[in-house]
């Protein structure tokens, strides 16, 4: 697959708006409708199992992935699950919603190749861990289902997906081989914006819900996020930190921002003992994701 890259070769900088327009004209842009549709369905409390089943059945890759998980050794079904309705009953409605969303987001990662020192596979694995970690925080600390947290965590590095595929020359040379400090500072210096700006702009262009857009744009700077919805952004920040500790193959920050992490812990009233339990549970969830085939 060929993408038109930005002006790295000519020394010109592409504006953020031009980059978003280029993305929308690409194969990734063609996924917009599917991603938005699944987001709308997953986060509508009135969505029925029948509607979910109908949507999945119109999407062969999505249908195949969910049936593959339903028939995996992890779930240990004694009978072959051959229909989406059966899969919803066997796996559970919420699990299938998460699988459906994960598959659609996964397709964003498939529209390009990794770079010499950067792997979209590693970025995907990290994103899955942040999604699960965010949901764990919401369930353990706030006694909430965590569906919004899962989505926010899954999509938080949307800008990095775009940057890795549309700014390849800049990304490879300046952000990987010359990576000597804060990635966002390097991006700002080279591109005039960073992957948080890219993700936030694309989320706005694609009309994502505000809670997702904020979690993408401010996932490294939760203190700058709008007060309404900040708890979710802080949750993603904590899950991002935990995921990086567990899965060391991916890291877009050279050092943990301890001050921001401590502030998030304090604002969310998460005790250190609770954090230890979250970290242990996330490590277990990582193994489960591998067994389910959801980490590569």
Count the domains: 2
Broad structural category = mainly alpha
The CATH architecture of the largest domain can be given as Orthogonal Bundle
Over all CA atoms, what is the radius of gyration?
19 Å
Report the average pLDDT across residues.
Answer: 88
Q: Would you give the CATH topology of the largest domain?
A: Hypothetical protein af1432
State which percent range the strand residues make up: under 5%
Q: What is the H/E string?
A: HHHHHHHHHHHHHHHHH
What is the β-strand count?
Answer: 0
Helix run count: 17
User: How much helix is in the residues?
Assistant: 55-70%
Biggest sheet character: none
**What's the shape?**
globular
Uncertain segments of ≥5 residues (pLDDT<50)?
1-11
CATH superfamily of the largest domain, by name, is Hypothetical protein af1432
Which CATH class of the largest domain is shown? Mainly Alpha
Characterize the structure shown.
The protein has 296 residues and is mostly helical. 66% of the residues lie in helices and 0% in strands. The protein is built from 17 helices and no strands. The longest helix has 23 residues. It starts with 15 loop residues before the first helix and ends with a helix. The N terminus is likely disordered.
Key terms:
296 residues, Hypothetical protein af1432, 17 helices, disordered N terminus
Give the structure's gist in a few sentences.
The chain has helices spanning 16-24, 27-30, 32-42, 49-57, 60-70, 84-91, 93-109, 120-142, 147-155, 158-166, 168-177, 183-191, 195-205, 210-217, 230-246, 258-267, 272-292. With 296 residues, the protein is mainly α.
């Amino acid at each position: 697959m060929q993408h038109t890259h930005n002006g790295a070769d000519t020394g010109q900088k592409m504006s953020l708006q031009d980059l978003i327009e280029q993305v929308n004209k690409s194969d990734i842009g063609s996924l917009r409708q599917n991603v938005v549709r699944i987001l709308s369905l997953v986060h509508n409390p009135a969505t029925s199992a029948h509607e979910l089943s109908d949507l999945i059945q119109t999407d062969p890759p999505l249908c195949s992935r969910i049936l593959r998980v339903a028939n995996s050794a992890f779930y240990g079904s004694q009978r072959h699950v051959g229909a989406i309705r059966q899969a919803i009953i066997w796996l559970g409605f919420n699990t299938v919603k998460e699988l459906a969303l994960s598959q659609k987001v996964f397709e964003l990662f498939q529209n390009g190749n990794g770079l010499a020192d950067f792997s979209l596979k590693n970025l995907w694995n990290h994103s899955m861990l942040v999604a699960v970690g965010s949901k764990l925080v919401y369930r353990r600390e706030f006694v909430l289902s965590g569906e919004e947290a899962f989505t926010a965590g899954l999509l938080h590095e949307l800008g990095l997906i775009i940057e890795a595929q549309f700014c390849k020359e800049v990304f490879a040379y300046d952000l990987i081989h010359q990576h000597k400090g804060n990635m966002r500072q390097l991006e700002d210096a080279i591109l005039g914006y960073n992957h948080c700006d890219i993700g936030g702009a694309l989320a706005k262009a694609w009309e994502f819900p505000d809670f997702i857009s904020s979690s993408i744009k401010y996932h490294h700077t939760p203190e700058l996020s709008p007060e309404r919805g900040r708890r979710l952004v802080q949750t993603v920040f904590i899950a991002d930190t935990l995921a990086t500790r567990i899965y060391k193959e991916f890291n877009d920050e050279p050092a943990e921002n301890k001050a921001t992490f401590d502030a998030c812990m304090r604002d969310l009233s998460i005790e250190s003992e609770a954090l230890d339990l979250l970290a242990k549970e996330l490590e277990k969830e990582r193994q489960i994701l591998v067994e389910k085939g959801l980490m590569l």
